[in-house]
Amino acid sequence: MKETVKRVILLCGTGAVLLAGRRAVPMMQAVTVGGMQAAALPQSSDTPESAPQEQPESSPPSDESGTVTQPVLLAPAPQNQSAAEIINIESDGSKAMWYSRLYQPGDSGDGGDILDRHFGAQSGNMFLTLPGGGQVRNSTFWSNADLLAESKIMPELPLKTDGSPMVLIYHTHTTESYVPEKTGRYDESFNFRTTEPDSNMVTVGDAIAEQLAAAGIGVIHAREIHDFPVWTGSYHNSAETVRQILADYPSVCIALDIHRDAISDGKTVIAPVAEIDGRQSAQIMIISGCDDGTMGMPDYRRNFHFASRLQETAETMFPGLTRPILFDYRKYNQDLTAGSLLIEVGSQGNTLEEARYAGTLTGLALSETIKGIAAG
Question: What is the pTM of this model?
C-alpha cells in the first residue's frame, strides 16, 4: 500500500476519535522484538484540548554561550550475541494518530532566532558539584552539604544484566519535537510538536533503548501518545501506562520519562549543545523530584541516588553532555518506582539529529550506570 493511502486511512481513523469528543484508545498492544509479549492496557482522557500544556521549563543563564559543528546522525547500535530485547508497546489508538499533527516546520524563519548555548559548570549557592562529575541545582530545603552526602549513597535497585526487563522508557509529552536542521531561525507557525514518531520524542527513546539492548539490558519502550489530542491530563495518562507495565513486568525498577525542554529568551529560542567526539549533541538535564511532605513521594531520595550515579557516569564518559540535575519540588510520576527520573533532551531549538545523538549517549551512560550498580 502506498504511503499516501496509509496516511488517508490513519487520518480517517483519527478523525473518528476526535469527532467522538474524547481520546478513545483501544486495548494496548505490544510490538515485540525477540518474542516477549506485553499485556493489554486501556487509556482514556476527557480533558479539553484548549488546556495549557504540562511541561517543565527552565531559564538559561545569561553569561554562557558556545557554538559547535553540525551533528552527524549515528548508525543504529551494533548488536551482539548478548543483546537483550526491546519490547515496544503502543495501542492501536495511538498508532491511528501518527499523522494527525504532521511535522511541518516550514522554511520562512519568521518566528525568531535560535541560539546555540553550552551550559557549563555553574557557580552560586544553589549549585553543588558531585565528586564523580556533574552538578546539582538544589532548589529545596536540603543544605548543599547534606545533599552532597546523600548523593554518595549507592542506589538500592535490584538490577540485572541478564536480558530481563529492567528499564521502562516512556513519554508523557510524546509529541514534543525539534527543528529539522540548523538554520538559526524558526517559523512562527511551527509549534514544535508532531504525532509522527520518527520526528518526536519516540525517536529519542528509540536511540536510548538501542544502546541498553546492545549492552544486554532488557528495556520496554512505551511509544504511546499521551498528550494528544489534549495536553492537560497527560501525566495522568502516562501514569496509567507506567502502572500497568510495572504490574505486567515486575522486574522493571527504572522508569525514565523522556522529554525535551522549552528554553527561550523573548522570541529567541535557546538550544543547549555540547561537542562530543567531534559531533554536536543536545545537552540533557535530569530532573529528580523532592517531596516537601505533601507530595506522596516517600522514596524520592532513592531516585536522587540513582540520578547522581547517572549524572556522574554521563559526565565522566561524555564531558559537557549534562546540565545540572534539577533537584526541586516536582513530582512527574516519580512516586511510581524507586528509580524514576525525568530527562530533558535538548530544547525545541535543537535538531532531531542532535537530540537523537544525545539519546544514544544517554543510553551508553545509562548502560554503564546500570552495569556498575548491578555489579555492586
Answer: 0.81
Query: How many angstroms separate the CA atoms of 44 and 47, rounded?
Result: 10
CB atoms within 10 A of CB 69: 11
Q: Are 252 and 168 in contact (CB under 8 A)?
A: yes
Contact 96, 251 (CB under 8 A): no
Interior CA angle at 321 toward 316 and 324, to 5°?
90
Q: Among residues 210, 212, 200, 192, which one has the least CA distance to residue 94? A: 200
State the pLDDT at residue 160. Answer: 95
131 preceded by a cis bond (ω within 30 of 0):
no
4/165 Cα distance (integer angstroms): 37
Sequence-distant (≥ 6) Cβ neighbours of residue 110 within 8 angstroms: 185, 187, 188
Average pLDDT per 10 consecutive residues for the chain, totaling 376 residues:
42 40 38 37 34 40 39 46 89 97 92 97 97 97 97 96 97 98 94 97 98 98 97 97 98 98 96 98 98 94 98 98 98 96 98 98 98 94
Of 277, 278, 297, which Cα lies nearest the Cα of 289? 297
Give the CATH number, domain containing residue 10.
3.40.630.40
Cβ pair 309, 303 in contact under 8 A: no
Domain enclosing residue 67, as ranges: 3-375
Q: Give the pLDDT score at 2.
A: 41
Check residue 81 and give its pLDDT.
Answer: 54
Q: How many domains does the chain have?
A: 1
Q: What is the crossing angle of helices 352-375 and 300-317, to 10°?
A: 110
Report CA dihedral (67, 133, 314, 354) to the nearest 10 degrees. -10
Q: DSSP assignment, residue 177? A: B
